[in-house]
Amino acid sequence: MAKLYNVNTFKRAAKKRLPAPIYHYMAGGADDEIALRENISAFDHYHLMPKQLRDVSVINTKSKILGKEVAAPLILSPTGMSRLFHHDKEFAVAKAAEKAGLYYGLSTMASTSIEQISDVSAGPKMFQIYILRDRGLTTEFVERCKASKFDALCLTVDTAMAGNRERDIVHGLTIPPKFGLKSLLSFASCPYWSLNFLLNPRLRLENVIHRVDAIKDGNMGLMKYVNDQFDRSVTWDDVAWLASQWEGPLVIKGVQSKEDALLAKKAGATALMISNHGGRQLESAPAAVDCVRPIRDAVGSDLELIVDGGVRRGNHVAKALALGADACSIGRPYLYGLAANGQSGVEQVLNILISELKRTMTLMGCRDVSDLDETFLS
Questions:
Q1: Is 277 a catalytic residue?
Q2: Which of 160, 306, 317, 377 is 20 to 30 A from 232, alpha carbon to alpha carbon?
Q3: 260-292 pLDDT tens trace
Q4: Which CATH number applies to 7-376: 3.40.50.20, 1.10.3860.10, 3.20.20.70, 3.20.20.60?
Q5: Half-sphere exposure of 120 (CA within 13 A, CB side)
Q6: Catalytic pick among 87, 171, 277, 316
Q7: pTM of the model as a whole
Q8: Which of 341, 329, 331 is nearest to 13 (CA)?
Q9: In Å, what is the CA distance from 322 to each residue of 113, 136, 164, 291, 318?
């Protein structure tokens, strides 16, 4: 683990640790993966302008995000089925986030329930939700989040249908994973993952598993049930309805245009997660970081803006904040850490990113993240 010194080294470690179908499900994007690549490369287009001879003996990264004090402007974005990547699944990630003093986002498609995460983590928590065909299930999620003392809701709005993720076709991903002839060599070459999967094969969508009795077709039937629940008729009126049900911090995830940002504000959102779903949905959608300036200009200071996608370095966080964001969120980076070494791997990734942010701020002559603005960009 001492040789893993940045996010990319953890990515390589995750690739070695995971069977090919599982790794490529995590790492892949839609179609030709242009959006996936440009999410990362877009950060290279912004240059940092240092201010010299400032007192940077003390660096402060503490922020207030979604109503909670956090150690750094960094959120662990909701990702589905963490059990695929490590047997300690979402528990390991939530505990690492709490230890680091950061927000943790739990997905509707998680392999751990709302209540289970509440039991293991006292840190700030956000639940990622969909407005489903069964509005009763959506309402149920809201009530469960209230009962479990979650701090924020995050509504994903860019999944009218699934993106075209061709790596899953090429590498033969199935849910749950099957040890078939095609993938046998890949699984055999990853004995740590495979042994833990055989010893603990439980992979369920725990937040909706209670609905399985209605379909009586096991895990695959449950996946079909969830996919059938995605509603292409959802509009901003439904967002206003959700805001009235929750009455707390509400993040809209998947907004990229200033027009949608204004509609989200009108519907009752308090924050936007500027995101193209990690390049996994609409191919050639703009990079998240490139959308910050126009959206900030449109909404002013009324909404918190969170850059979701492509964050691989602490200097990426600094650039996003200088452009007008309030925070960044990460998905794949912490999953690389999870796959490499469970909770310890996630902790190491978070420590690296925060250390990089502090080093960047020191060299920029910026002692507090609240001071980051466009004067630090060239």
A1: yes
A2: 306
A3: 999 999 999 999 999 999 999 999 999 999 999
A4: 3.20.20.70
A5: 18
A6: 277
A7: 0.94
A8: 341
A9: 36, 41, 33, 13, 6
